[in-house]
Every structure is written in structure tokens, then in C-alpha cells.
Amino acid sequence: MHTGSASALLDRLLATAPAPAWWLVLVTAAAALILVGYRPLWRLTRAAVTVVHEGGHALVALLTGRRLHAITLHTDTSGLTVSSGKPTGLGMILTAAAGYPAPAALGLGYAALLGTGRVTLMLWATLLMLAAVLIKVRNVYGLLTVAVLGALVFGVSWFGTDLLQAGFAYLAAWFLLAAAVRPVVELQRGRRRQPGRTDSDADQLARLTHLPALLWVLFFTVLCLAALVVGGALLLAPVEQLHPLLQR
């Protein structure tokens, strides 16, 4: 790549978009709540949360020196990340704990980028993350899921208008922040319905740390709610600045 092309690409990535219209921030927030709260839609959109959840396991596994083997995504929106290394210790604990907070952490990161107007950087960073996950996916459904998400993000980032890109970016951030909470609720609900089930992340962490699984569920809940509050404040900042009624 020529120096000029590289410079132009960097300039495009780091370009700042103007503050979005206040109505766009609120509409995308409402749309995200519908995608999370309306069960028929949640059955579809939860697949995106699973991709982030398993990506969180995979990233922390690599950061803690474990060897990442495979990521599998299932049609029931569950997933599995397989890594090898020491079966106990801090690395394994962090890897097991990374899944449920991952959507909240990513949503918070998106909110921080959007707060500085880095819409393009957020979209392209998403493409890189999806490509990294795609490399390790080992089943057909998982490959299709990640590929469809990648095609959607690429289409918006490459062909979409500025308004479409901003709307998609804010919707993605709101969705991840809101959607992070529901799987934790479903986790505890499933544990209550099947008391003998021991394959959840919380139960695995209970065996690794000798702390109650419920404590880990509460830990996930606090992290996800905190990210929702902080990320929501970042995303709503333009509303306070731009809405005429709030300027009085």
C-alpha cells in the first residue's frame, strides 16, 4: 500500500463525525430495547450476543497464555470456546469469567468511541473483531452467523450514508449495553430450573474459586448494569447538548 493510501485510510479511520441528532440517539435506544425485550426478535438477535460472549472467552484465553482451539456457535444461541492450558489458576478463572461481561464491555467501548465521534473507527474495529472470531469458528452455523454479521457491518460502513452509519453504530452500542443484562438473568433462571446443572460459566467458576455460583451471577449483573449506566450516559450526552428543550 502506498504511503498516501495508508495516510488516507488512517485519516478516514480517525475522522470524527458530527454529534448525532438527539432523536437518533433516543430512537436507537428504543429500538435496542425492543430487540432485547421482544422475545421473537431476541431469539434472533441473541446470536450476536453469543458471538461477543464467546469472543470474550477467546480473547482472555489468549491474553492469559492459554492455547485457543475452537469456537462453536449453536442454533439455540448457545456457544462453546475450547482452549487448553493449566486447568486451574488465575488464567482459567479469568477466561471462564470473561464471557458474560464481554457484551457490556464492548458496548461500553463503543459508547466511548461514539462519544468522541469515531463512528468509522468503531465499525471497522468491529469488522476486525469479527474476522478474528471467524478464524477460530469450527462449525457451519457459526461460520454463517459471523459471516452475516460481518457482511452487515461492512455494507453499512462502506456503502451507508453518514446517517445510516451513525444510526447503526448507536443501535449496536445500545443493543450490547442492554443485551448484556438479559443473558445473566437467563443464566440464573436456568440454574433455578435445573438445580443439578453444572456446566454454566458461574458453576465452573464456583468449582475453580470455591465461591458460590450465585455470587458470580451477582458479579456479572453488577458489571453489566454498571456498563449500562456509564455507557448510557456517554451515549445520551449529545441529547443534553442538542435537544432545544434541555438547553433552557
From TrEMBL:
Record's keyword terms, sorted: Membrane, Transmembrane, Transmembrane helix
Transmembrane domains' residue ranges: 20-38, 90-113, 119-135, 140-160, 166-185, 213-237
Keyword Transferase tagged: no
KW Manganese (keyword) present: no
Pfam families the UniProt entry points to: Peptidase_M50B
Name of the protein this chain belongs to: M50 family metallopeptidase
Lineage, opening ranks: Bacteria, Bacillati, Actinomycetota, Actinomycetes, Mycobacteriales
